[in-house]
Design brief:
Layout lengths: L2 E7 L16 E2 L2 E2 H10 L4 E8 L4 H10 L5 E6 L4 H9 L8 E6 L7 H14 L1 E7 L6 E2 L5 E3 L7 E10 H14 L6 H6 L6 E4 L10 H14 L2
Parallel strand pairs: 1-4, 1-6, 4-5, 7-11
Antiparallel strand pairs: 2-3, 6-10, 7-10, 8-9
């Protein structure tokens, strides 16, 4: 099977709040971005990796790829104004032989092989899948004034993670449709949902956190410490 992976790393890290690019922060002495890439680099069915990044980060990423002997990265493409624009640029670099496309956040360095394999298997069967975890907190829907409008049943709610994996022909079709209609979607599942094609969720892992704030880095370090015990 030929699987292509897009690592989304073009964000400006504004929510991290330190002025540092969160993808280059260190976990166990290794940049977060590299740990995210390594999760896919060592999988046989992953044949190529495309990275989306800010132009000013290209040189440091190339240096890291060489330092950590990353060999499957085919290209680094400049990110666009939105996540969807960035992924669209990367899609243009994917080999025609690709059967499935996996999109993963460059700031999710703790993704497990189990989650990747489970999502891939489901996507192979159904064309579209993502890993997710049950929501722990009660969720409220509010109006513009902040008043609670409704409370969704928590048992049916999931927090979607990455990787999100799709049939490559299906993904290209969905992206072309979004571009032609001038629509922007905040995640790749929503992009596929817009075509009417069902997306299925697999069991994710609460350790597969996205490094968004300084506290997230501390949590990730704690998870890694526990793994070593």
């Amino acid at each position: 099977m030929f699987v292509s992976v897009i690592i989304a790393a073009a964000g400006n890290s504004t929510r991290y709040g330190t002025g540092k690019s969160k993808q280059f922060l260190l976990l166990e002495g290794i940049p977060v971005l590299i740990k995210s890439i390594q999760a896919f680099e060592e999988i046989d069915y992953v044949r190529e990796i495309i990275i989306t990044a800010r132009k000013q980060d290209f040189d440091i990423i190339k240096a890291f790829l060489k330092e950590y002997d990353i060999r499957k990265v085919k290209d680094i493409v400049e990110g666009g104004a939105t996540r969807q624009d960035s992924i669209a640029a990367a899609v243009g670099k994917i080999s025609d032989e690709a059967m499935l496309i996996a999109v993963h956040d460059g700031a999710r360095p703790l993704v497990s092989r189990k989650s990747i394999d489970a999502t891939l298997e489901k996507a192979s069967q159904c064309g579209a899948a993502a890993c997710a975890v049950p929501v722990k907190d009660t969720i409220k829907i509010i109006d513009s004034s902040g008043k609670i409008v409704s409370t969704p049943e928590r048992a049916s709610l999931r927090a979607v993670q990455t990787p999100q994996i799709f049939s490559f022909p299906l993904y290209r079709e969905a992206m072309a449709k979004a571009v032609s209609e001038g629509r922007q979607y905040t995640d790749d599942c929503q992009l596929i949902e817009s075509t009417g094609h069902p997306v299925y969720l697999t069991e994710g892992d609460y350790e597969n956190i996205k490094i968004t704030t300084p506290d997230d880095l501390l949590v990730a370090e704690k998870f890694l410490s526990e793994r070593r015990k």
